Amino acid sequence: MAYGNVRPPLRRAGLAAGAAMLAMAQAGPATAAPEQVGNVQRAMEELAGTPGVVGVVGGAYLDGRPVGLGSAGSRLLDGQGGRIPANARFRIWSQTKQMVATVVLQLVEEGRLGVDDKLGEVLPEVASRDLVERADEITVRQMLRHTSGIPDWYAGKPKPDGSEGDDPSFDVFDFTTHHRPLDLVGWSRGRPRTGEPGERWSYSNTNYTLLGMVIERSTGHDLATELRRRLFGPLGMTKSYLMVKPPEGVKGPHGHGYYPGADGRPRDVDRFNASYTGAAGGVVSTAHDVSAFNRAFTQGKLLPPELQRVLTDRLPGASRPQSGGRGGCSDDFYITGGSAPGSLALTSYSADGRRQLAMSFTLSVKPSAVALDVNKAVEAVFCPSTSAAASGSSARGEG
C-alpha cells in the first residue's frame, strides 16, 4: 500500500478503509493544466447513481476560490428528506489524522515534543499499565508514520476462516456508551503486533488515538481546542469541529448514512458513536474547509520542510505512490480519504495544492461494497476537455 495522500481501493469499512494517509505523495513537477472547470453538479449526479450511494456533496476549489458546488441523491434513504445542502457539514473520518499529525509536528517545532521521544516517556500511563507492548521503544515518529507495529483497535471482527472481516470490532449501533481513548488503546493490547518498531508500514488507528492523548498531555488543552486554535481558526475553517461526545450528531442539515443490521437491512447510523473516532477520525468539516486545510498543508504553509518530510518521505516497504487521476490529470492529482459505517469522504487534489475536489458520500451499504469512479469525476471537473474527448472516443468506438 502506498504511503501518502494516495487512497488505495476501498477494501473494508472502517476509519482505516482507504486510510487517509498522512501526506502528499512524492510526485514529480505538477503538470501544467488549463484553467477550466467542468460542471461539478453533473459530476455529483453521476456519482450519486453508484449502487449503495444515498447522497453526495462536493465542492471544487482553485487557488482557494470556489469554482463549483454540487449535491445529488437524497438526504435520507429511499429518496426522502430532499437534497443535502451542497455546503453541508460531513464527517471526514481518517482525513482527521493529517490534521492531528500537523498539530503534533507543530509541537515539535515549538520544542514541546521530539519526533524520537518514546511513547513510554510522553504517555507514562500507557507504559505503567502495560497498554502498549514495547512502549519504551516506540517513537512519536513511528506512530505518525504507522510504523510502530501497534495493532489496530478498530480492526474488523475475524471471519470464520480467520481472515480479517469488514465489520468493526465493536457494536456499530451502540451510539451512547462513552469510551475513553485509553479504553480503545486497551482493546488492541491482546492483538498481535504487526512488526518491529520502525520496520514497516501497517495502518493502525491506535497510533492516532495515542497521538491525540500526547497532544493533550503536552499542551494541557483538549484536542478540540488545539485543532481549533492551530488550524481551524487560522485557516478560516469556520464550520469545522472535532466531534467528541456520544451521541452527538453532525450540526446542521446533512446527509444520513446507513449500515446493514443483523437482518441485512440498512439502519441509520447518523449518531455513530463519537468516542470511537477522536484523533483517529472525529473531525466534522465541509468541502470548503477540508480543501483549505489540504491546500495549506500541500503548499507547505503549516510546517517547516524538515518536519513536513516526517510525513511525506517514503516508508520502508511502501509501494510506489499511485496517482488518483487519469488521462490529462494522471500526473497531477492524488486522493486522500477515509470511511466508517455510513459514509466515506474523499479529497482529490493537485500536487501543487492549487486544486481540490472534496466530496462526501452517504451510503446504504458497507463502504467496502461501493465502487466509485472518482477519477472520472476529477477529470470532468478539472480536465473537462480531456474528459469530453475521451467520452467522444468511447462513443465512437475509438481507442
Automatic annotation (TrEMBL):
Signal peptide span: 1-32
Domain Beta-lactamase-related: 41-358
Keyword set, alphabetical order: Carboxypeptidase, Hydrolase, Protease, Signal
Catalytic activity, EC: 3.4.16.4
Coiled coil: none
Classification via Pfam families: Beta-lactamase (PF00144)
GO molecular function, one term: serine-type D-Ala-D-Ala carboxypeptidase activity
Name of this protein: D-alanyl-D-alanine carboxypeptidase
Species whose genome carries this gene: Actinomadura namibiensis
Phylogenetic lineage: Bacteria, Bacillati, Actinomycetota, Actinomycetes, Streptosporangiales
